[in-house]
Amino acid sequence: MASVPSDGSAGYLPETVTRSVKILVVGSFGVGKTTLIGSVSEIAPLRTEETVTQVSEGVDDLTGVDDKRTTTVAMDFGRITLNGSVALYLFGAPGQRRFWDLWEGLAEGAAGVLVLVDTRPGRLEASFEVFDQLELGIRLPFVVAVNHFPDTVPHGADELRTALDLLPETPILDCDARDRASALNALTALVQHALDVSADRPADVPQDIPVA
Amino acid sequence: MTPPDDRSGGYRDSALRPYVLTKGRARPSRNTISVDTLLIATDPPPPLPVSAGRQERALLAMCRGLLSLVEVAARLELPVSVVRVLASDLVDSGHLTARAGSPRSAQLPRDLLQEVLNGLRAL
Ligand SMILES: Nc1nc2c(ncn2[C@@H]2O[C@H](COP(=O)(O)OP(=O)(O)OP(=O)(O)O)[C@@H](O)[C@H]2O)c(=O)[nH]1
Ligand SMILES: [Mg+2]
């Protein structure tokens, strides 16, 4: 894998870039988040740390006795420069409940969330808490991409919609996180969906909470 | 510098370091700097006070080209929260220029979403 140039001379954004946009890539453990980001990113995916203050309530590690504690969590990210003027950043965040505070910081002002799911037997259940947080917590537009592994059995979108209890308008698509075109297709579907959803809202009326 | 290319999933616990590196402050002086806020050193650079630390100098050197906050943090191998504090001080002192990252508001402007969609389709 390529790495950041040691002299730091390369990898800078063109100075024509004036704006940036975030997309979150979330999903359960090992579902392919890092792989997908790596498939589309123009820089080698980087890993960094964010310090989050967690309220111990709802934290799956019950050793915390304080009301609040600070933890350091890792997140990975990639970058795509679009049209020389917008930098698109993809952030991979783990789906487990104890990472939800990380999502909150990342979700603020994001275009939407690409949710990767693994539909192999016994794996889908791990996605349930991801959808809980998307629907009750951060409420950004999201699409669901089924990442295909060699032993993934194809399910109909309707069957999956029922199993995950998704709204009829939430797009569900297939993807191969290792394939750049397939990963870009999933991102395109997400941004299209974010536009569709925003068209449903009255224009120029500031809203605090986006319609998911 | 070695890249933070740790695919093993391990991470360093640095709960104390943010307070040390930022001279006791955990919060930036301004809250407008987001993970994707774009940063670049002001050209020509105003002189740094002699009190400026190693971290500030490293940050400014890294920002001789345009990078987001999170990229600067990853390249410097520092937590995002630390770099956010250092960067906002350097913006306040005029050493660093910040270009708008994602808005604090929940909703993105439609024209920006459309630009992203067009850009993705053109790839
Ligand atoms: N066959 C196949 N394998 C995949 C695909 N996507 C990911 N993998 C493999 O699945 C494993 C996990 O992928 P990662 O991208 O590390 O998953 P992740 O979601 O980032 O995992 P965590 O960060 O640990 O939660 C790796 O061995 C990948 O090579 C895919 O689309 N098809
Ligand atoms: Mg990963």
From TrEMBL, chain A:
Q: Does the keyword Transferase apply?
A: no
Pfam families per the UniProt record, alphabetical = ATP_bind_1 (PF03029)
Signal peptide location in the record? Answer: none
- Record flagged with keyword GTP-binding: yes
Family annotation (InterPro entries)? Gliding_Motility_GTPase, Gpn, P-loop_NTPase
Which keywords does the record carry? ATP-binding, GTP-binding, Hydrolase, Nucleotide-binding
A GO molecular-function annotation: ATP binding
Query: What SUPFAM superfamilies does its record include?
Result: P-loop containing nucleoside triphosphate hydrolases (SSF52540)
Q: What's this protein's family per the entry?
A: Belongs to the GPN-loop GTPase family.
The name of this protein is: ATP-binding protein
Mind giving the lineage of the organism this protein is from? Bacteria, Bacillati, Actinomycetota, Actinomycetes, Micromonosporales
Automatic annotation (TrEMBL), chain B:
Compositional bias annotation for Basic and acidic residues:
1-10
Region described as Disordered: spans on this chain: 1-28
Name of the molecule in the record = DUF742 domain-containing protein
The species is: Plantactinospora endophytica
